[in-house]
# Entry
Amino acid sequence: MKQLIATLALACALVPSVSAGGGKAHWSYHGDEGPSHWGDIDPTYSTCKGHEQSPIDLNGQAIHADVLPPAVYWQAADIKTATNNGHTFQVALDRPGKIVVDGKQYEFLQFHFHSGSEHTINGRRYPLEVHLVHAATDGSLAVIGIMFIQGKENPALARLISTLPGTETSYSPNMTFNLNDFLPPRWSTYRYQGSLTTPPCSEIVSWTVFDTPLTASEEQIKVFETLFPHSYRPVQPTGRRFILKAD
# Structure
């Protein structure tokens, strides 16, 4: 694993950063193109200055409510693409299934990682967070966020790291993956309405964030810290939004 980290770090250093924004204005997590400037560097990013932005801190202000967690209908599926886009490691699967939130159906799109976590829980930032992104037919999104804490090696994460490109590229590995391997043993969740956490920051996301983290080894976490250091947006004001906590 140490040799893998060193190899990935060297490969990343040799390739210039590219935008994940599909040819729009370049953004970054640092400096003049960092989060505090996103709303100004391109007119299409103006929503980044909105009032229902993500991520947020999930804390004691949450209202305990009798709400159901997402109903998940996932199955093992082929990995279509494994992508290093300069900002994150993103994985697309071939028809792995859907989730249902408040009676609304969302089909799986992709999952990706942030190093450290974007959401914080009672002010605590975790070393890694994965976002499982799903879309409804009306264009709205439902995203599940799951934290990782340093501990035992994560077998699912180990398989994924073996497919992670060390340079900014995308390819199709000959591998299947099951999203159920990301589910924590305890289903205590936070729910709130928010946004994409990267430009254009569209406020179209129903967020579900699990309270119970998974484990990842120190070396697994270092892979993401090496390739995508500090790849998280600072927490945003909660404003007048309700955060619901379901135990």
Observations:
- Helices lie at 2-13, 38-41, 155-161, 218-227.
- Residues 2-13 form the longest helix (12 residues).
